[in-house]
Each structure stands twice: as structure tokens, then as C-alpha cells.
Design brief:
alpha+beta, Arc Repressor Mutant, subunit A, two-stranded antiparallel sheet, 5 helices, 38% helix, 12% strand
């Protein structure tokens, strides 16, 4: 390990993981560059931290890929298995952004709530 690389403390590691995977109230994913600037550490430190936690880092502008076969629905915010998302070759993950339930009703919140209760 080079002398300029830092090992983050546990609290900062949690922030890095949450910011990068979108596990925040807003659900927004932040880039490794933004996280590095915010925490005052190098880009490679952020990258290695994510890799230590088995989070696959991807190219610029591509969302993080979870290793547990789960994905968060962009509409309802719930996390489901990948099988709950329609296949879509035009998307970075090869799956739709919305779960199948939300995709069926797109925007009718009462119907979305009813679908997810079952």
C-alpha cells in the first residue's frame, strides 16, 4: 500500500457505501469522485473501500452493481430480487428501473400500494 492511501474509519466507510449505493433517504447515488472530494481522500481510497465490501465499481456514469442480486425500485423505493424487474437491454443493468408492480401501473400510487401489499 502506498503511503498516501488512507484506510477509512468505520463511520466513513458506512458513509461511502451508503452514498455510492444510494442507500440514503433521497435514494441518490453519488460518484466516487464526489465522495472522495467530500471526505478529503483519494479516489483510489474510495474505490478500494467499496471493493473490500464486495461492491462492484463500474465505469464513469454507470450505477453501482449490488452483489447480492437485489435492486431498488426507482419509483416505490423498495428493494427486490432482480427477478422482480423486467429485462431491458437498453439499461445499464440489463433490467428496468421500476419493479414489475410499479411498471404495470406507473404512477397510480394507490394501485402501487395495493400491489406491494400482496
Amino acid at each position: 500500500m502506498l503511503h498516501h492511501d488512507k484506510i477509512l474509519d468505520a463511520e466513513k466507510e458506512v458513509k461511502v457505501i451508503r452514498w455510492y449505493t444510494g442507500d440514503t433517504k433521497s435514494g441518490r447515488n453519488y460518484t466516487m469522485k464526489w465522495i472522495a472530494e467530500k471526505l478529503g481522500v483519494s479516489y483510489s481510497t474510495i474505490q478500494r473501500t467499496l471493493q473490500r465490501h464486495n461492491i462492484v465499481t463500474r465505469g464513469k456514469g454507470r450505477p453501482p452493481m449490488r452483489m447480492d442480486g437485489m435492486r431498488r425500485c426507482s419509483l416505490c423505493g423498495e428493494t427486490y430480487k432482480l427477478s422482480r424487474f423486467a429485462r431491458d437491454a437498453t439499461k445499464p443493468f440489463g433490467r428496468a428501473y421500476y419493479c414489475k408492480g410499479c411498471n404495470m401501473v406507473k404512477g397510480s400510487s394507490s394501485v402501487v400500494d395495493d400491489y406491494h401489499e400482496t
